Amino acid sequence: MPHDGKLSDEEIATALETLPGWEVRAGKLHKEYRFPDFAHAMGFMVTSAFAIEAMNHHPEWFNVYNRVTVELISHDVGGITQRDVRLAGKLEETAKRMS
Asked: What CATH number does residue 45 fall under?
């Protein structure tokens, strides 16, 4: 599967306009989701895993109780790509369905 190239700062800024709550931190797309409790946070992760696996593009993510912190970067190109933007969009869709 061909990989997308690294996005410019302008392209990233445009993409962030469609991804509420997402920002760039340390060169990665970053967002912290908060859920009512641990079960909902884990449900989000498990439900998201199916889309993640289908995309074969895996996030760096961390769970502490009701929070899931997500960081997205395409390590193979050393930056943020359209794959990261698409995955962020999928995570947003999943989070909306779960709220």
From this structure: 3.30.1360.20
What is the value of pTM for the model shown? Answer: 0.93
How many structural domains are present in the chain?
1
Q: Does residue 60 form part of some domain? A: yes
What distance in Å separates the CA atoms of residue 36 and residue 77, rounded to the nearest whole number?
36
User: What are 36-74's pLDDT values in tens digits?
Assistant: 999 999 999 999 999 999 999 999 999 999 999 999 999
Degrees, nearest 5: CA angle 15-23-19:
40
Q: Which residues in the chain belong to E strands, given as ranges? A: 23-25, 28-34, 60-64, 67-72
